[in-house]
Design brief:
By secondary structure, the protein is of the alpha/beta class. Helix content is about 50%, strand content about 15%. It is built from 25 helices and 22 strands.
C-alpha cells in the first residue's frame, strides 16, 4: 500500500471493500446498489451462492468461497462415514435456505436421503425450538443432523436438545464454526459434533495493533467510541472508562479477519497493477486511472489479481486469487468437538480443499465406533437391498440363495451350474469334480470284497486245474465250468471299473463289462441246465441221442448267447456314444458329480437280456432239480438261480432309490455284482471244492462209482415218469447193487440195452 500515491484512495471513489452484515440478504442489496454505479466490490464475508451469478452481480468479487462449496464438504463428510439418512435444519433467510438447498443437491448425487427438514426463524421462541427437536426425534434412524444456521440458532437448538434429553451427531456449517459462544452451557449436547469453518489463521500483527487502540488515538473510525462503550459497558464521559484497555480479559480474534486483510490487499494489488498498465510513464496517478470504466477494472485487474497472502505463518502456503466467477479459493477446516483431558474443545481433524482429508485417529468416538445414521440397517454379506418405491435410502434386506453371488448391492446372480460363489460373494469359482476315490470309505468296502472274491475264484480255478481229470471236475463239464469261473472273475473285476475315475475309456468298459460278465455266467449256467433237461427229455421220448450236447457244441451255444449281449452293448455304444458329464442336481448345486453320460434307465435296459437268461436258467434249474447224483449239480444250480433272482429283484429298486447319491449308488452296484458272483461261487463250486479238499475218497473213478452212475442213469431213463428226474431212480439203483458181482452183471446188461437204444451216448459223457 505504501507504494501507491495516497491521492489514489482519495481520488478514486469507484471501488469498495466489504460489507459485513448480520443479515445475509443485505450483501445482495449492497452488491445491487454498487452495480448500478458500476463500482467494483470485493467482499470478505459474503458467502451467498447467489452472488456467483455474474448476470446479476457482474461487479462483485470476494475473498471467501460461496456456501455451495461448504455444502459439498458437508456432504462428503456424510459419505465418508456412510451417513446416508440425515435430517436438516436451516435458518430462514438467504444463508440458511440457499446453503441447505445446495447441500440437498450434493446429497442427492451421493445417494444421501433427507429424513426431515426444518427451519428456524429469528422470531422463534423456546417452544418453537423444542418442536424442531421433537420433529427430529421422530426420525429415530436419522441420528445425524445437518445445521445450516446462524450461530444464535445453533445455540438455541443445543439448549432445546439438552432440555429434551435428545442426542444427535451434529454436522454444522461455519455459522457455528469453532465458536465457544455457541456451545457454552450445552457442551454435553454438542459432544461429537463436526463443524466447518473457513480455513484461516490469526494475524498477530493485527491483534497487536488492535489491542493498542483507544478512543483518543483511533479518531479516524467514527464507530470506535460506540464500540468501546459497548465493550466495557460504560460511557466515555464517566471517570475511568477511557482508562480501560483491550488487552484486559480474553481476546478472541474473529476468524474472518484474514479475509478482510486479503480483500484490502487484493484491491491494492489491483490498483497497483492498473497503474502500471495504464500509467507506465509516471509513478503517480494519471488521468487514465480516474473514475470511469469500472467494468474494465473489475475484469482486467481485480479478477486477475494473484498474490501470496500477507502475514501468513511460515508453515502455511496460501495463495489469494479469484476464479472466473469472482469467488475466492475454497478451503475449509473441519473440527470435531469433544472432551480432552476433562475439558471440551474443538479439535481440528481434517480439511476440505476440493478433496476431503480426515484424520479419524483424532476422533474419540463414543462407543469406540462411528455412529450409524441410515434408514435401514446394513445388509449382511449374503443379502441384497430391495429398495422401497421412491426412496433410495430405505430398503429391505433379502438373502441370496447359497448358489448366488452379489452382482451388485441390489442383485443376486446365479452362478453357472458347476460353479459356486466365492467366500466374499464377488464372483464364482469352478467346483471340484466329485467322484469316488480309491481311499474313500465308499471304495474300500467294495474293493475289499472284490479282492477277496477274485482270490477265492483264482483258488477254485487252481484247484480245478490241478484235479482236472477227477470225476468231480469231469462231471461238472469242464469247458462250461471254466467259462463260468471266467464270468465270476469278471463280476468281481467290475468293481474296479466302477470305482475308477470316470473317463471315456472307463465308461466304455462299464457298458461292456457289466452286461458281459453277467452274460458269461448265466449263458454257461443256461447251457448246462438246458443240456441236462434235453438229455432226460430225449430218453423219455424215445431214448434218441439229443443234438448239440458235445463239449464243442456246448461252448458254441454258450458263445452264441454271450455274443447276443455283446451285440446289445455295441448297439448301445453306437446309439449313445460313451463319455463323461458333470451332473449338478437342483437340490445340491454345490456338488459337481463326474459321471458317465449314460442314463440309469439305459443301463438297466441293457441288462434286460441278462434278465431273460436268468429267467430261463431258473426255469431249467427247477425242471432238473431231481436229477441223479452224477448230475447233482442241477440242484446247486437251482439254489444259485433262486438266490440270484432275489438279489436282482432287490438290486433294481435299490439302484433307483439311491440315484440321488452317486456314492451309495455306485457302492450298491459294486456289492450287488460281487454278490451275484459270490452266489455262483458259493452255491455251485463250494460243494465241489469241499469234496476235492475234504472228501477225496468220493473223487475216485472206481468201478462202484461207475457202475452206480451207469445203473442210475439207465434205471432213471426206464422208470422216470416225466422229464424231471424222479427220486425213485436212486432207489432202483441201490436195490440192484447188493454184491460186486451182481452189480457188474446188472450194469453190463443195462449197458448193452443202452447201446441198443441210444448207442454210445452215455459212455461218451462218462469219458468227459
Amino acid at each position: 500500500l505504501s507504494s501507491l500515491d495516497s491521492n489514489i484512495l482519495r481520488s478514486l471513489a469507484w471501488c469498495s471493500v466489504g460489507p459485513r452484515a448480520k443479515v445475509p440478504r443485505w450483501h445482495c442489496c449492497v452488491a445491487n446498489l454498487l452495480r448500478l454505479f458500476q463500482i467494483p466490490q470485493i467482499s470478505y464475508a459474503s458467502t451467498s451462492a447467489k452472488l456467483s451469478d455474474k448476470t446479476r452481480y457482474d461487479y462483485f468479487a470476494r475473498t471467501v468461497p460461496p456456501d455451495f462449496y461448504q455444502a459439498k464438504a458437508m456432504a462428503e463428510i456424510l459419505r465418508y462415514f456412510n451417513w446416508t439418512y440425515v435430517s436438516t435444519v436451516a435458518s430462514e433467510g438467504d444463508y440458511g435456505e440457499t446453503g441447505i438447498d445446495a447441500f440437498q443437491q450434493e446429497a442427492r448425487t451421493r445417494q444421501i436421503c433427507i429424513a426431515t427438514s426444518a427451519k428456524v426463524s429469528r422470531s422463534m421462541n423456546r417452544q418453537g425450538y423444542e418442536n424442531v427437536i421433537r420433529s427430529l426425534q421422530q426420525k429415530s434412524n436419522a441420528k445425524v443432523v445437518i445445521l445450516f444456521t446462524r450461530s444464535e440458532d445453533a445455540r438455541e437448538l443445543l439448549v432445546a436438545a439438552a432440555r429434551m434429553n435428545a442426542s444427535f451427531t451434529w454436522v454444522a456449517s461455519d455459522g457455528w464454526g469453532a465458536q465457544e459462544s455457541v456451545v457454552r452451557g450445552s457442551e454435553t449436547g454438542a459432544d461429537g459434533a463436526f463443524t466447518i469453518e473457513l480455513a484461516s489463521y490469526p494475524i498477530r500483527e493485527f491483534e497487536d495493533y488492535f489491542t493498542k487502540l483507544n478512543p483518543y488515538t483511533n479518531t479516524r473510525n467514527p464507530w470506535f467510541r460506540e464500540f468501546w462503550e459497548h465493550k466495557f459497558a460504560c460511557r466515555l464521559e464517566e471517570h475511568g472508562c477511557s482508562d480501560r484497555s483491550l488487552r484486559d480479559g480474553t481476546f478472541e480474534q474473529e476468524s474472518k479477519i484474514m479475509f478482510v486483510v486479503n480483500a484490502v490487499y487484493a484491491m491494492a494489488f489491483a490498483l497497483h497493477n492498473m497503474r502500471q498498465a495504464v500509467c507506465s510513464n509516471t509513478s503517480k496517478v494519471c488521468d487514465a486511472m480516474k473514475p470511469g470504466n469500472g467494468r474494465r477494472f473489475y475484469k482486467e485487474f481485480i479478477l486477475k489479481t494473484k498474490f501470496e497472502a500477507p502475514f501468513r505463518p511460515a508453515d502455511t502456503d496460501s495463495m489469494v486469487r479469484f476464479d472466473s466467477f469472482g469467488d475466492g479459493i475454497s478451503r475449509y477446516n473441519i473440527f470435531h468437538y469433544h472432551k480432552e483431558d476433562g475439558k471440551f474443545t474443538y479439535r481440528k481433524v481434517g480439511y476440505w480443499d476440493q478433496i476431503l482429508t480426515l484424520n479419524t485417529s483424532l476422533i474419540p468416538w463414543r462407543g469406540l465406533v462411528p455412529p450409524t445414521s441410515q434408514c435401514s440397517d446394513p445388509c449382511r454379506k449374503n443379502e441384497v437391498k430391495s429398495m422401497q418405491p421412491g426412496d433410495v435410502c430405505c430398503w429391505i434386506c433379502i438373502p441370496c440363495q447359497p448358489y448366488q453371488y452379489l452382482q451388485d448391492e441390489f442383485t443376486c446372480a446365479d452362478c453357472s451350474f458347476g460353479q459356486w460363489p466365492l467366500a466374499n460373494l464377488t464372483g464364482c469359482y469352478e467346483l471340484p469334480e466329485e467322484y469316488i476315490r480309491w481311499e474313500d470309505a465308499w471304495a474300500i468296502g467294495p474293493v475289499a470284497i472284490s479282492c477277496l472274491g477274485i482270490l477265492c475264484t483264482l483258488t477254485v480255478v487252481g484247484l480245478f486245474l490241478k484235479h482236472n481229470e477227477t470225476p468231480v471236475v469231469k462231471a461238472s463239464g469242464r469247458e462250461l465250468t471254466y467259462i463260468l469261473l471266467l464270468g465270476v472273475l469278471m463280476c468281481y473285476s467290475i468293481t474296479f471299473i466302477y470305482i475308477a475315475k470316470p473317463s471315456t475309456t472307463v465308461c466304455t468298459l462299464r457298458r461292456l463289462g457289466l452286461g458281459t460278465s453277467f452274460a458269461v455266467c448265466y449263458s454257461a449256467l443256461l447251457t448246462k441246465t438246458n443240456r441236462i433237461a434235453r438229455i432226460f427229455s430225449g430218453v423219455k421220448d424215445g431214448a434218441q441221442r439229443p443234438r448239440f450236447i458235445s463239449p464243442a457244441s456246448q461252448v458254441a451255444i454258450c458263445g452264441a448267447l454271450i455274443s447276443c449281449q455283446l451285440l446289445v452293448a455295441v448297439i448301445w455304444l453306437l446309439v449313445e456314444v460313451p463319455g463323461v458329464r458333470k451332473e449338478v442336481t437342483p437340490d445340491r448345486r454345490n456338488v459337481v458329480t463326474l459321471k458317465c453320460n449314460s442314463r440309469d434307465t439305459s443301463m438297466l435296459m441293457s441288462l434286460t437280456y441278462n434278465c431273460i437268461l436268468i429267467i430261463l436258467c431258473t426255469v431249467y434249474a427247477f425242471k432238473t432239480r431231481k436229477c441223479p447224483e452224477n448230475f447233482n449239480e442241477a440242484k446247486f444250480i437251482g439254489f444259485t438261480m433262486y438266490t440270484t433272482c432275489i438279489i436282482w429283484l432287490a438290486f433294481q429298486p435299490i439302484f433307483y432309490v439311491t440315484a440321488s447319491d452317486y456314492r451309495v449308488q455306485t457302492t450298491t452296484m459294486c456289492i450287488s455284482v460281487s454278490l451275484s458272483g459270490s452266489v455262483v461261487l458259493g452255491c455251485l463250486f463250494a460243494p465241489k471244492v469241499h469234496i476235492i479238499l475234504f472228501q477225496p475218497q468220493k473223487n475216485v473213478a472206481t468201478l462202484r462209482v461207475t457202475a452206480n452212475r451207469f445203473s442210475a442213469t439207465v434205471s432213471t431213463f426206464v422208470s422216470a415218469p416225466s422229464s424231471s428226474c424222479s427220486k425213485g431212480a436212486r432207489t432202483h439203483t441201490h436195490t440192484h447193487t447188493h454184491t460186486h458181482t451182481h452189480t457188474h452183471t446188472h450194469t453190463h446188461a443195462h449197458t448193452l440195452l443202452w447201446r441198443k437204444k441210444t448207442g454210445a451216448f452215455h459212455r461218451k459223457h462218462d469219458a468227459n
